[in-house]
């Protein structure tokens, strides 16, 4: 039996059932009643102690949303979601905003430990080694649980807190920037998020400050039938720099879990934001049952001249991924980057890519996308690069490579290019390759087993993108890639 | 060391090896010659454990172990090495990374310690110099864009680093210029060892001028039809395979 055939056989039986993070935490939960209505929106806003303007903002979004339709253009298919059958608010009960990790429910901390991100350890490590430091804002279902490193960040003038806290404590910043990149009415999922978002992170880096450490959030979906709607807002003021990492994990369940997040990034003059995502949500079982539906709107606005926003993502999870981190290149000489590794296995469906909208002069963008499809998965890259009439000297380079493992999966590339300025130069390269039986045999003959061989070839394939991740997370991502391809070969 | 008895192999219902017998002693260099399509590469693949080949009968025993019961990577760890007639390209994987991965994989399989980076570097440097392989080439993706001769030298480099007990060289001389041929042959000769055996598949005497064989076997229609000493190769060069083809028909 040829290697690819065997791959397919194995995937059918094993693969994603072995989801490593499929465990539940048992803690008391404070939940809103099922379904969505103006009352639920008010309930959420009230629960979070929000000011009146925020409640109104949400209600406006809700009223918009009821007039909108779910988009159908992506190359994904899933049974209709009953939005009235979901819970929109779930907060761990014993959690009145802990001051330090000691006050955090030990069950929750245990969950994070299982995830391999011991908050406590990170704090200690940072103190001892003084080398790599990561501030973690952990989101457990909907409420931000603990924020480490707060003190040190405060000294640098960096605000890093939950969005709820920001709404209360930094209202002027939130009012100025929230919804300024992803408008309330942007798209079905973003509008839904605007109405019901329950938590997420807020970052503000003041003028001229280089954030002294990597900022990181771990999202996790725990409660049954809760949609998770985080909202993240990051503002890099003039000449500042910040690197942010988002990691996501969800426990294993039979029913599908909905995740519709919104991330907004704003970079002012000469500022730079690096946003990295390592996403390994539960992808569903071998029959395609269960798993997370991930419908996310991520957009960065290079608002100032010479600003830069760079998205790096490693996507290995979710049953369905619908996600297009984008850059609006508004400031002259601004630069947008998108580096992506998307791995699909089992019955996963991924439709992901980016949009680079060149508005300012001499704006540049770079897209490197690596799609890996195994099992019976479908992996689509969808990208738009456009140049506005005034975007003189706009340049883009796009490279999309797909790697197929087995012959029951699919990889698709859908590039859209729109140029209204004759001086714009857009380059596009795309390749599709397959790990051949002969390549496999060559590696086996040298002593690698099948999984080692696939991991080696895949890691070679994604190398250019892995290099873009902050050091600490590149190693984690590499491990994740191996895990997600486990069982993709005999 | 290697003992093959009555090997019968088919692929896609077509019989390629037809009751092949061969034995190679430790320390021996055995040459196999024979017309195109006679099954030489097939034999090397079956020894190494390539899928798709159906072994209908026979056995292959290397130092007491029946290879046919082992997976390809286990055979590799047990000391089987095949220098491919057409080495494969592995895009994106730096040659260095590949070398380190395979060396450590074999060591792990044998329950040995992984190599430290300095130790690994030292070994690679030494072996590469001997084969006139430029250090820069080792940073490139394995075999990608390498010339035919470079690929063949890379095979011998891997052989030198992995230190296998049984080495199969499938037409390693093809694609080599005269100087490269000498370099490669020297590389192989340096590995000659009383505990190691070689199976050298070739069409030309010129390789055997450099790597002098202890025995020469003629293969036709999927079996060994004649065996002799190194003079047999010279005789074949003069007279061709006509008599064996007829004999088999
Ligand atoms: N998949 C296959 N299906 C049918 N026949 C095959 C297949 N693969 C190889 N063969 C045949 O097996 C025979 C032996 O091939 P092999 O490559 O072993 O010959 P060889 O002795 O190495 O020849 P050369 O000297 O040209 O390298 C050939 O006739 C070849 O066409
Ligand atoms: Mg051959």
UniProtKB/TrEMBL annotation, chain A:
Pfam families, per the entry: SUFBD_core (PF01458), SufBD_N (PF19295)
Organism field: Chelatococcus albus
Family from the record: Belongs to the iron-sulfur cluster assembly SufBD family.
Domain (SUF system FeS cluster assembly SufBD core) ranges: 219-461
NCBIfam families assigned: PRK11814.1 (NF008773), sufB (TIGR01980)
Record-annotated SUF system FeS cluster assembly SufBD N-terminal domain positions: 150-210
InterPro entries to which the protein is assigned, alphabetical: Fe-S_cluster_assembly_SufBD, SUF_FeS_clus_asmbl_SufB, SUF_FeS_clus_asmbl_SufBD_core, SUF_FeS_clus_asmbl_SufBD_sf, SufBD_N
Protein name in the entry: Fe-S cluster assembly protein SufB
TrEMBL record, chain B:
Keyword Kinase set for record: no
Domain ABC transporter residues, every copy: 2-246
InterPro entries: AAA+_ATPase, ABC_transporter-like_ATP-bd, ABC_transporter-like_CS, FeS-cluster_ATPase_SufC, P-loop_NTPase
Listed Pfam families: ABC_tran
Region forming the signal peptide: none
Superkingdom of origin: Bacteria
Keywords: ATP-binding, Nucleotide-binding
Family: Belongs to the ABC transporter superfamily. Ycf16 family.
NCBIfam families cross-referenced by the UniProt entry: sufC (TIGR01978)
Descriptive protein name: Fe-S cluster assembly ATPase SufC
Protein's organism: Chelatococcus albus
UniProt gene name: sufC
């Amino acid at each position: 039996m040829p290697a690819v055939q065997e791959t397919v056989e194995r995937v059918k039986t094993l693969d994603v059932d072995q989801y490593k993070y499929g465990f539940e935490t048992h803690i008391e939960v404070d939940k809103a009643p099922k379904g969505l209505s103006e009352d639920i929106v008010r309930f959420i806003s009230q629960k979070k102690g929000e000011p009146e303007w925020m409640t109104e903002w949400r209600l406006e979004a809700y009223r918009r949303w009821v007039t909108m339709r779910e988009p159908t253009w992506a190359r994904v298919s899933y049974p209709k979601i009953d939005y009235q059958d979901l819970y929109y608010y779930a907060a761990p009960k014993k959690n009145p905003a802990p001051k330090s990790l000691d006050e955090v429910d030990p069950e929750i901390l245990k969950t994070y430990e299982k995830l391999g991100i011991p908050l406590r350890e990170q704090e200690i490590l940072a103190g001892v080694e003084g080398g790599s430091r990561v501030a973690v804002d952990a989101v457990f279902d909907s409420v931000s649980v603990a924020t480490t490193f707060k003190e040190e960040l405060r000294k640098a003038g960096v605000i890093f807190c939950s969005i709820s806290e920001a709404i209360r404590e930094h209202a002027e910043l939130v009012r100025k920037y929230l919804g300024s990149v992803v408008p309330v009415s942007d798209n079905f999922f973003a509008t839904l998020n605007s109405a019901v978002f329950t938590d997420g992170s807020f970052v503000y880096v003041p003028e001229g400050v280089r954030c002294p450490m990597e900022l990181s959030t771990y999202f996790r979906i725990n409660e049954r039938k809760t949609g998770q709607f985080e909202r993240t807002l990051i503002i890099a003021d003039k000449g500042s720099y910040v690197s942010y990492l988002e990691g996501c994990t969800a426990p294993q369940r039979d029913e599908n879990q909905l995740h519709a997040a919104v991330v907004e990034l704003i970079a002012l003059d000469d500022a730079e934001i690096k946003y990295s995502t390592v996403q390994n949500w539960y992808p569903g079982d071998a029959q395609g049952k269960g798993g997370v539906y991930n419908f996310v709107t991520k957009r960065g606005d290079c608002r100032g001249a010479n600003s830069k926003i760079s998205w790096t993502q490693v996507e290995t999870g979710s049953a369905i991924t619908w996600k297009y981190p984008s850059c609006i290149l508004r400031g002259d000489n601004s630069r947008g980057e998108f580096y992506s590794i998307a791995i699909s296995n089992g019955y996963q469906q991924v439709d992901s890519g980016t949009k680079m909208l060149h508005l300012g002069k001499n704006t540049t963008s770079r897209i490197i996308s690596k799609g890996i499809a195994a099992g019976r998965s479908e992996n689509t890259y969808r990208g738009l690069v456009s140049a506005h009439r005034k975007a003189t000297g706009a340049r883009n380079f796009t490279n999309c490579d797909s790697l197929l493992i087995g012959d029951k999966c699919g990889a698709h590339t859908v590039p859209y290019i729109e140029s209204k300025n004759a001086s714009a130069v857009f380059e596009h390269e795309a390749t599709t390759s397959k790990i051949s039986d002969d390549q496999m045999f060559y590696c086996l003959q040298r002593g690698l087993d099948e999984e080692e061989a696939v991991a080696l070839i895949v890691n070679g394939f994604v190398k250019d993108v892995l290099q873009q991740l902050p050091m600490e997370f590149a190693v984690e991502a590499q491990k994740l890639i191996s895990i997600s391809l486990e069982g993709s070969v005999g | 060391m290697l003992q093959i008895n009555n090997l019968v192999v088919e692929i896609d219902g077509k019989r390629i090896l037809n009751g092949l017998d061969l034995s190679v002693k430790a320390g021996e260099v055995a040459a196999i010659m024979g017309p195109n399509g006679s099954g030489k590469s097939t034999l090397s693949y079956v020894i190494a454990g390539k899928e798709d080949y159906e072994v209908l009968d026979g056995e292959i025993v290397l130092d007491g172990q029946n290879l046919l019961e082992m997976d390809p990577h286990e055979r590799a760890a047990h000391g089987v090495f095949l220098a491919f007639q057409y080495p494969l390209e592995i895009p994106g994987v730096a040659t260095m990374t590949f070398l380190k991965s395979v060396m450590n994989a074999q060591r792990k399989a044998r329950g040995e310690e992984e190599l430290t980076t300095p130790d690994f570097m030292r070994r690679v440097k030494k072996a590469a110099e001997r084969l006139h392989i430029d250090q820069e080439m080792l940073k490139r993706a394995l075999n990608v864009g390498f010339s035919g001769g470079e690929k063949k030298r890379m095979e011998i480099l891997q052989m030198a680093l992995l230190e296998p007990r049984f080495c199969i060289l499938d037409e390693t001389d093809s694609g080599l210029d005269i100087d490269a041929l000498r370099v490669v042959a020297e590389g192989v000769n340096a590995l000659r060892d009383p505990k190691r055996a070689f199976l050298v598949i070739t069409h030309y005497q010129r390789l055997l001028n450099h790597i002098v064989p202890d025995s020469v076997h003629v293969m036709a229609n999927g079996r060994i039809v004649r065996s002799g000493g190194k003079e047999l190769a010279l005789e074949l060069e003069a007279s061709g395979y006509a008599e064996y083809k007829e004999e088999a028909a």
